[in-house]
Write a structure and sequence with these properties.
Elements lengths: L1 E4 L5 E3 L5 E3 L12 H5 L4 H22 L3 E4 L14 E5 L10 E4 L9 E8 L5 E4 L10 E2 L4 E9 L2 H21 L8 H20 L5 E8 L6 E8 L5 E4 L5 E5 L4 E7 L9 E4 L3 H24 L14 H12 L8 E4 L3
Antiparallel strand pairs: 1-17, 2-3, 4-5, 5-10, 6-7, 6-10, 7-8, 8-9, 11-12, 12-15, 13-14, 13-16
């Protein structure tokens, strides 16, 4: 006589020997293939691949068609085109006009480029430029041959992602190529870890969140032995600027300027401090973004913890059968569990 265990809906038995427990909140889907449903799909890695591939294709396509993508590195054009903005240039066609943005080489050098506003065009064709954030003209005149292109548009903040693109491309390639060698049960943790690294590493290397640049300083006429400093927030987050023993300006938005002053010291330079200035909901969002990878990992770990070890029904002994029946009885009643069948 052979004993056949016919489990209720909470258990799924395959033709050999496997009994796999289904959590109570999945009872309605007892007919689903649980193993396939639990297998990590790699959706996160596919999304990362798609984003990087589209970015690379976009950059190469813009370059092939004659364009040029640049990242603003200095605050001379704040707030119009501030630090971290992506500037998209096209080859210069037609006349140059006062007020438009052009990218050019300074005279006698090809080592660096500037993207500034055309401030004046002389009768002999010489062009004068200036930064929007600087009331004074640039200390040079350029010709049409010095112009790299005309700025067609700019996107604030996207320049940081453009600078990180080579690092992201290498990271995603390593992530995807190594993923097949990771055990299936560990792939969610692998994906979450790599996604976290690819976000945290560029932030750590490029420092896009909190930055500032002093653009001018002068003696403060209202306070003897004080200096007055003009500083611009070139980071992404809003900040508060202050000088020890001096004034402070709170909640300066990205690309915004502030004028702070404080006592000078013979022991060292005047130091302008900056502190992240977020509202309560801003801090709540920041905490959510930081903790979301850990929360996702814990959620998947809890959800996948319902799988019990496989049971070989051909080699089950009385002790194992007793434990299995006790487990079944504790999860909703036995019902018609045992069926006696003659061995022949």
């Amino acid at each position: 006589m052979t004993i056949v265990v016919a489990p209720p809906a909470r258990y799924s038995v395959t033709e050999g020997n496997v009994a796999t427990r289904v959590p109570a909140h999945r009872d309605r889907g007892a007919s689903e293939d649980i193993r396939d449903r639990r297998r990590p799909r790699g959706t996160l890695s596919l999304v990362a691949i798609a984003v990087v591939v589209l970015a690379v294709v976009g950059v190469l396509g813009w370059d092939i068609t004659g364009g040029k993508l640049l990242v603003m590195e200095t605050p001379s054009m704040c707030p119009t085109v501030c630090v971290g903005s992506l500037v998209a240039d096209r080859p210069l066609v037609g006349s140059v006009h006062v007020g438009e943005l052009i990218t050019f080489y300074p005279p006698n050098t090809r080592a660096e480029t500037y993207t500034h506003e055309v401030s004046h065009i002389f009768a002999n064709g010489m062009i004068q430029t200036r930064g929007v954030g600087n009331p004074q003209h640039d200390p040079w005149l350029i010709t049409r041959s010095d112009i790299v292109g005309r700025a067609t548009f700019s996107v604030w903040g996207l320049g940081w992602a453009f600078k990180a693109l080579p690092l992201l491309a290498v990271g995603v390639m390593a992530w995807v190529l190594a993923r097949p060698w990771v055990a299936a049960r560990s792939r969610r943790a692998w994906d979450t870890g790599w996604a976290t690294i690819l976000v945290a590493l560029p932030i750590w290397m490029l420092h896009p969140l909190v930055q500032a640049t002093v653009i001018s300083s002068a003696v403060d006429p209202a306070h003897p032995h004080w200096a007055r400093v003009s500083v611009v927030n070139t980071g992404i987050l809003p900040v508060t600027f202050h000088i020890s023993g001096g004034t402070s300006v709170a909640h300066v938005a990205s690309t915004g300027r502030a004028l702070v002053s404080g006592p000078t010291s013979a022991n060292g330079p005047l130091v302008v401090h900056q502190i992240v200035s977020l509202s309560w909901w801003g801090w709540a969002i920041a905490a959510l973004l930081v903790l979301s990878p850990l929360a996702g990992y814990l959620w998947h770990a809890w959800r996948d913890n319902d799988v019990i070890p496989e049971v070989d029904s051909n080699r089950i002994d009385s002790t194992d059968l007793g434990r299995l029946l006790a487990d079944l009885d504790g999860t909703g009643g036995l019902g018609p569990v045992l069926a006696n069948r003659s061995a022949g």
